[in-house]
Structure formats: C-alpha cells, structure tokens
Amino acid sequence: MAYLSFLLVLCLTCHLAHGVGLHGFHFHGLEEPRPLRKSDRENITEAWIQQPVDHFNPRDNRTWSMRYLENSRYFKENGPILIMIGGEWAISRGFLETGLMYELASTHNAIMYYTEHRYYGKSKPTKDTSSQSLQYLSVDQALADLARFIETKKSTEGFENSTVVVFGGSYSGNVATWLRLKYPHLVQGALASSAPIFAKADFYEYYEVVTESLRRYSQKCVDKVKAAFEAVEKLLTAKDGPEKLKQYFNLCDVPDVNSSNDREHFMNILVEQFGGTVQYNKVENGRTMIAACCEIMTNEQLGSPLQRLVHFVSNGNKCLQNNYEKFVKLYRNETWDAQPDIMRQWFYQTCTEYGYYQTTNSNKTSFGSSLSLRYFTDICTDLYGEYYNNEFLNVRIKRTNVMYGGLRPDLRNVIFTNGNVDPWHALSVLQDLNTLSPAIFINGSSHCRDLYSDSDTDVEDLIQARAKVRKIIGGWISS
Q1: Catalytic: 170?
Q2: Euclidean distance between the first and final Cα of the chain, in Å?
Q3: Exactly one of 23, 26, 108, 447 is catalytic; which is it?
Q4: How far is CA 127 from CA 8, 62, 350, 472, in A?
Q5: Residue 321 belongs to what H/E stretch?
Q6: Catalytic residue selected from 40, 378, 382, 422
Q7: pLDDT tens track for 364-414
Q8: Domain final residue, candidates 374, 395, 416
Q9: Where does the secretion signal sit in this chain (predicted)?
Q10: If you placed Cys at 416, which of 185, 289, 412, 429 could pair as Cys (CB 3.0 to 4.6 Å)?
Q11: Looking at 138, 170, 213, 366, which residue is catalytic?
C-alpha cells in the first residue's frame, strides 16, 4: 500500500527503477537512507528465526528461516524495541544506520530490528514460486511471522518490559497498522507512512493525483502531457503508426494493435514514467523530479509534445521491452533463481488481496483512456491460472477490507502520515481516527519521505511532521 511497489534488476523500464515500493512494475522497495557516518555498520548483525510455513494449519509442521537485521548500539536493559517492517523488497542496513527510527532509538536507548517479509529477499518459505507455493504469501501469514518474532524477542532476558513500536512505509505501512490491530498485546504503537490500507481493484485515483501534482507545477505541463498521449493513441490506430512508435520510442517490438493487452502494456510503460516521477519526487540536482519532468514536457525546443515524451522516456541505446507475451513468459517462471525481480510475488499479492491497479478510467487525468482494469486482471490469470479471475479478486478485496477495517480500523496508537503529492494517499487515512490515532497530511511531500532524517531540501511541513511523530512516539515509549 505499501503497494501497491511493487519492484529487481530487471523491470519493464529499467532506467526508472528509483523505487519506494508499490508502483506498478518498478519495484525496488523502500529506498534505504544513506548514513552520515560508517561507524554503525559494525553494530548491525544479520540473523534468522524459524517460522512455520503455515501458521494456521497445526498439521503442517514445515518451517523456514526468516531473515532480520539487528542494531543494539543504543540499547539498555528493558529499553524499547523498534522494528522497521520489510515489505515487497529485500531488506538492507540503511534504516538501522540513519532515518527517523534510528534517531528515536538513539534518543530512547532502543534496540532496532529490520524484518524481512516472507517471499522477499533471502526469506524463502517454499521451494519455488508456483501458484501452489504462493498460497502462503499473504498478509495474514506475514503478521503471524511478526507476532512470533516479537513474542520470541520479548521472552529474552532484558526485553520483558520493553515497549514495542513498529514502523512501515508503503505496503509495509499496512502491515504495521494491521499488526497493531490484530496483535495489540505485542505492539504498543505503529507509524504507518504512505500506507494504502483500503484495498481497491480499480485504483483510477492514482493517476488523478499524478495529474494534480503535475498541475501544481504548471497547467502547461498537464496540457502538454495530455497532447503527447493523444498523439500516441492516434498513432496506435494509424496506418504504419505502430512501426513509427517502435522507431520513436526504441521499442523492442512493434506494438500488436490486434491485441488489447499488447497495446495497453505499451501504454502502461509510458504512463508509469509519470507515476514514478510523482510518487518518488525527490530533489535531484537542485530540483524536484516533477520539475525536471515538466521542464522537458514544456520545452518547445525539443519539438512536439510527442517528441518531448520520447525524450522523457528515452532509455539510451537499450530498447524498451514492450511485448506483453514476452512479459508473461518471463514472469510465469516459477523457480527462485530465474526471478528477475519481485514482480511475480508482489503481483500475486495484488491479485489475491489488494488490487491497486492503476487504470486511466477517469476523465481527470492527462493520460488518455488506454489502461483498463481488464488488462491488469488478465495478468493475474495469465501468470497464476484461470482461478485468479476478476470475480475471485473482488471477493478477496472485500475480505481484506472486512478483516482489517478498510479506512476505519478500530485501533489506537497508530500514526498515519501521507504527502499530498503522493498518489497513494488516496487509499490511506487522511483524517484522525481518534485522538490517539492521528493523521498527518504533509503539504508538498511524497511517498514515505517522513521515514528519513531531516534534509535541507525538505519542505517545512515535512520537517514539522517528523517533529510531531517524534513527540508522539516518545510519549508512547515513556508512558
């Protein structure tokens, strides 16, 4: 939601893999912050804990090893336990070396953990990623993994009275929220950053927010993006148009106009360029990613809006992989070693629990009307089997919202942070649930930026939001 972020050395448009999770096919996970110093590395250890493959079947005694990282540098006996929850990515050291959680640990003498989600990174519960094996990839199982992890740590001498606070961003923000909801005796508080806790199949609001975020830069930017996509859609139906698109965008294959999935697959590549830009919207070389994008799309010296779009999505000399059938063939592979990234695992989660499909089924976007819900649900059946159809998806999405409360979960001590630039805020909590579960809406900020340390390039609202979060969590720890 987190998500969704979906993702990792090979993706549909590799040059765009900036990554914060939950964005289409470009999953790199939560971007690890860079520490100011290297001295903390020696304090971080990698460890493993045995987990049941299926927590809910007492007749299944299979187990697997879940990876986690630990930093005990600041810990004092019965100090708090702070846990960064991993999502659809492989965990690494960054959040145990710097960032918001690290700062709280240093202030409150906490031990820090970073847990890896089952089926991601080195945490592999099953021999392969077949549909049969992936049945154990669910948030229910992931929450039970975390509950067992916390219970094990709390039974260790020196931790019996430790307050537990969990942190999550994007889909792992969902996990943090729901861990507090389902296991309140184990978790005293949670920070859910950019957490899309409302499951929804047709997530057309995503590109509505993308369009609005571009509009804040300039209406001209929005207009030129719209003109560019109109030109692309026109070429798709013109004689020799697909061949021209292959040449213009340096595609690996000519789009098959007789295949709706192939057409939409190509359009998804183009549209996602803008989704990724807005979602991640960091400051690079003194300007935001949105500003850099709009400078290209409004630069008349680069030619027509279509030519500017070509310039924006340029992938150098490497052709863009745009063929739907090749895409399906790649991600049908069920062996761990053949997985180019986490796409097969993450998309399975969207097909069975969340949806999150970023369509253009809205007249409030600049990206035409070329991305339908059917395109995404066809991926579900093409990758995992006919059982995973649209009807199944709707049943499972309803279950997720019933099980976990949708946008109105009944809980306390959860902070929801969202940026108004971030397209995922449309599925998150934007108003206080109650006095103990506040929502902090950050003007000018995007996906999960509050999880990092203060920076000179941060907007003032973001700095104030972090200060508020530190104060609230400090209160949980000291109470």
Answers
A1: yes
A2: 30
A3: 447
A4: 20, 12, 22, 43
A5: none
A6: 422
A7: 999 999 899 999 999 999 999 999 999 999 999 999 999 999 999 999 999
A8: 395
A9: 1-19
A10: 429
A11: 170
